Amino acid sequence: MTRDIPEISLQRLPVYLNYLKSLSGEENKFISSGAIAAALGMGEVLVRKDLAYTSSAGRPKVGYVRAELIAALEEYLGCNVKKNAVLVGVGGLGRALMSYGGFVNYGIEIVEAYDSDPAKEGMVIAGKKVCSADEFERGMAVYSPRLAIIAVPASAAQSVCDMLVAAGIKGILNFAPVQLKAPESVAVRNIDVAANLAIISSMI
Amino acid sequence: MTRDIPEISLQRLPVYLNYLKSLSGEENKFISSGAIAAALGMGEVLVRKDLAYTSSAGRPKVGYVRAELIAALEEYLGCNVKKNAVLVGVGGLGRALMSYGGFVNYGIEIVEAYDSDPAKEGMVIAGKKVCSADEFERGMAVYSPRLAIIAVPASAAQSVCDMLVAAGIKGILNFAPVQLKAPESVAVRNIDVAANLAIISSMI
Q1: What residues in B contact A19, CB-CB < 8 Å?
Q2: Concatenated DSSP letters of A148-170
Q3: Is the pTM of this model over 0.90?
Q4: How confident is the model at residue B151 (pLDDT cuts 50, 70, 90)?
Q5: Measured between beta carbons, which residues in chain B are less than 8 angstroms from residue A106?
Q6: Chain B residue whose CA is closest to A6
């Protein structure tokens, strides 16, 4: 899907979704953009603009129907469409990701994982198999994943990225602390856990 | 430390640092802002502006001395100052973080972890003790951490955040998919792993 939403707005949609899903009860049947903005510490105009990408405007004086707004956000983020993902690198972080329950909220499932360590071959973590890198092409043929997660050491990340791109992966979430080179047609996002904590430390 | 650097520039400093550290050899003794920009797919003016926060300008036609630039970035990011951090929530992700080797590059050490599950009390992971939440105040007194990581389920994250703030924690890295309420004086950054993969999926 090609979208006209700016990436910066897209990034905030899960934040709205999480917040709206955390509410319950009859008193939260309706919610205004002002209430969402106040709860999340954002500006109201920004919230309204972001939400306009996914749904029709809230009604004056009443706001959005919360359930409808949740449905619109889930629809926009593709939460109801099942998507297969593969994982490369079954160290501590890789294992944690294989067991992580949060992906299912977005319709995403890690279907298989790969690791170059023969000792890990055949392991089953959270019901998912760990395979040798040799089996990657078979996995691609079976599951047709478009998404992949890289959780290998920095030194191996670029070659793993090249392999994923060559195999047809279109989106990569990279945990290795290295800037990957990939074609423009492949979406890459990086999560550098240690750098995030260092940034916080520099801010306080 | 209070800094005049914009957060958006601060966020890029670890990216430059990782890249510069990945190079080696006599041919990389000097590096220009143009070469850094090209390697990282950024604009040269942006790179020069970001780096100017941490170090004096590169020399015309020669560029930066790579080792000096690394040292300046490490100094700026406080990599050489040891900083204690605590972790709350020893599930799969918490365990992975306790074992993660990347923090040491920024001078950060997770010194102790806390979990409300009595079955986890007394566990030692990567040489660090898992304690009951009751021991949190003792840990604060012993280690004086200013940084904390939240790796508990979303439903528990706000109460953990409140506890951390009340105890004097100044910076929080939050992995729970929820927007935390904290005083302005406390720096909070969120990493929502599943949302990141969903965003990638929406981009492709």
Answers
A1: 178-179
A2: EEE-S-HHHHHHHHHHHHHTT--
A3: yes
A4: very high
A5: 194-195, 197-198, 201
A6: B203
